[in-house]
Amino acid sequence: MSNASVPTKPEWLIENPKGGSLLLLIPGGKFLAGGKGNDEGGGTFPVDLPAYYLGVTMVTNAQYSRFLTDRQPSKSDLEKWVTLDSSCFVILYWFSVSSESGC
Fold first, then answer.
1. Please, are residues 92 and 55 in contact by the beta-carbon 8 Å criterion?
2. d(CA 53, CA 22)
């Protein structure tokens, strides 16, 4: 009998238990954000972000639909989270899920 071990995912790559999508660990750290322009913050400033997980692939319409079904947002929250543009893209705002998805 062989003592070969079963390969496991590294700790920086996890599977979302609800939807099965892969999430990549982005390490926390400091960086300079902003820029010289008024629309860039009027200068650079330090930002210290905690570690977070980011989806390896874009959120699909089916995944977002399951999220909304589970979350049951109010009509006012839903209007803040979702906008349909003329090219049939759903724009998902940061306070729900950060992604863009085509029809």
1. no
2. 9
> Could you tell me how many residues make up the chain?
103
DSSP designation for 40: G
CB-based contacts of 52: which residues, under 8 Å, 6+ apart? Answer: 25, 26, 28
Q: What is the pLDDT of residue 24?
A: 92
Q: Residue 55 in 3-state DSSP?
A: strand
Determine whether 5 is exposed, middle or buried from the number of CB atoms within 10 Å of its CB (0-12, 13-18, 19+).
exposed
pLDDT digits (tens, 9 = 90+) for 3-37: 566 667 678 899 888 778 899 999 999 999 998 88
Q: How far is CA 2 from CA 6, 7, 8, 9, 31, in A?
A: 11, 14, 17, 21, 48
3-state secondary structure of 37: coil
| Per-residue pLDDT tens digits for 29-64 | 999 999 888 888 889 999 999 999 999 998 887 888
